[in-house]
Amino acid sequence: MVRRQDIVEFLDDLLDINDVSDHSVNGLQVQGGEEVRKVGLAVDAALSVYERAIAEGCQMLVVHHGLIWGGLQRITDRNHAHVSRLIHSGLNLYAAHLPLDMSPDVGNNALLCQMAGLVGIEPFGAYHGAKIGWKGALEVPCGISQFEDVWREQLGATPRTLPFGPELIRTVAIVSGGGTGALKEAIDEGIDCFVSGEGPHEKYHEALEGGIHLMYLGHYLTETVGVQAVGRALTAEFPELSTVFIDEPTGF
User: Fold this and answer.
1) End-to-end CA distance of the chain
2) What is the DSSP letter of 250?
3) CA distances in angstroms from 95 to 61, 87, 140, listed in the order given
4) pLDDT, tens digit, 9 for 90 and up, residues 134-180
């Protein structure tokens, strides 16, 4: 059994949550029981996720998309349902949004770069003064269909690609989730393929006119890798803890 505060301090340090400007209120969002034996890891704070975490015997839930964004104005309606369930169950809720995208150790984007076999990776994707994504190069350039196969094998993804880039992909930039705000940066840097989770309608023409491959792997799926890595880091630091990944796909 581990004290809640020890876990919170470890995660705050691991993810550098105080060094990132973010709309999400990162860190412990809802306080539950003081002693933790099992931690659930999930992408989203949702009632169905809470119920599964409780059924799994968790005392803490770590998510990428938390409950509090910019501060709660009222604890009514949906907010009331969430806060009430968490408090009555004693389940701690910890959230890490941008810190979990940009971490070099357990972050979504650095891990996706590793899955893709990129070398020479470095920060990419400016957002509010920080780089939240990563970029790198393939050791052996490949065609778009081969690169799609990498994601099928490594992530279980079904890529949706706008194939507007060069015949061979050499350079790749990745910003998970809804990260296509960095598409212009990728175009300006001459990146061959930009990978994200999902994007808006108008990115089609931006990619076409920019001569870049734009590959969508799914918002949810691209953000499952970080929370699972956090689980591994927790059990390495606290061997007495157990963890479980709560997989609740959204279809996006």
Assistant:
1) 36
2) -
3) 8, 16, 37
4) 999 999 999 999 999 999 999 999 999 999 999 999 999 999 999 99
